[in-house]
Amino acid sequence: MEVLKRILNFYLNSSIHVALAVYALTWVTLIQFELDYDENVLYFAFFATITGYNFVKYFGVAKFHHRSLARWLKVIQIFSFIAFIAMGYYAFQLEMKTLLLLSIFGLITFLYAMPLIPMRYFRDSQKNLREIGGLKVYVIAIVWTFTTVLLPLIDNEISLNTDVVITCVQRFVFVIVLMLPFEIRDLNYDSLKLATIPQKIGIKNTKIIGILLLMVFFVLEYFKDELTGNSVLVTLIVLFVTLLFVIFSNKKQSKYYSAFWVESVPMVWLIILLMLY
Questions:
Q1: Structure pTM?
Q2: Is the distance from CB of 242 to CB of 214 less than 8 angstroms?
Q3: CA distance 240 to 68
Q4: Tens digits of per-residue pLDDT, 170-214?
Q5: Cα separation of 23 and 47, whole Å?
Q6: Which of 103, 111, 162, 167 is most deeply buried (CB count within 10 A of its CB)?
Q7: What's phi and psi for 97, nearest 5 deg?
Q8: Cα–Cα distance for residue pair 184/230, rounded to 1 Å
Q9: How far apart are alpha carbons 9 and 244 in whole angstroms?
Q10: Distance CA 267, CA 260 (A)
Q11: What contacts 24+ positions apart, CB below 8 Å, involve 200-204?
Q12: HEC profile for 180-233?
């Protein structure tokens, strides 16, 4: 049992689970726009997520304590380096215009962790994008939206139309709602300087905001040119599952409530689509 727990913790701490969530949402986009399974885009999204998330999570720890790193962190470093190499391989399989856009979002990820911007531009004298009050959730939502919607569509030369714009807005809203249980969980640990949504408006109002955003997420489906009964049904199911996780989230949630179960919603979305299409 202890071995299984260690494996699960490594699976979560090394960002494999969140990478699968990004992989799933990217595949969801391919299915929604009736595109073939794109190995290069999907594998790039998977390995880039591992690389990016682990860089953001562990850079601050590793840069000052490299020689005294705990064994598990050293293993994650090696694993992240392998993921970085795989990301580089699949990046070179993508279209040049895709790579140019990727460089912009790669820079955002870099600045999210690195203290390169002068302090005077930051509230409370923080040093990187991650520490700007109230910004974190929106930066993550933008990066996820680009990776899971625009990346596969641009690389497959799909023109920007109304359905693409609506899907981007839906995905942005969905990711923000998906992060609310995490923000509620972290109320006990986050500095007040971060000005997270629950810190600013409280848990109850955060859940109300989540419900309203999910309604927007669902209603937007009806504005698409390509609307089917299956797409509405799937959107409704995803809304319901996500809604339950938002409603039942609290500051004392279990260790795996957000990190595993909430993060699994994109996989549920993908599985439902694969069953129906």
A1: 0.89
A2: yes
A3: 46
A4: 999 999 999 999 999 988 776 555 678 898 899 999 999 999 999
A5: 9
A6: 167
A7: -65, -30
A8: 33
A9: 24
A10: 11
A11: 200/134, 203/250, 203/251
A12: HHHHHHHHHCCCHHHCCHHHHHHHHHHHHHHHHHHHHHHHHHHHCCCCCHHHHH
Q: CA 51 to CA 69: how far, in whole Å?
A: 18
Both structure tokens of 164? 């693409």
How is residue 125 annotated by DSSP?
G
Which residue carries 């009964």 as its tokens? 229
CA 248 → CA 48, 200, 235, 241, distances in Å? 31, 20, 20, 11
Angle CA 119–200–132, to nearest 5: 15
How far is Cα 156 from Cα 135, in angstroms, rounded to an integer? 31
pLDDT value of residue 8: 92
Query: What are the backbone dihedrals phi and psi of residue 127, each rounded to the nearest 5 degrees, phi first?
Result: -115, -15
Type of residue at 268: V
Q: Residue with structure tokens 């299409």?
A: 277
Q: How many helices, marked H, and strands, marked E, lie in the chain?
A: 12, 0
pLDDT tens digits, residue range 10-44?
A: 999 999 999 999 999 999 999 999 999 999 999 99
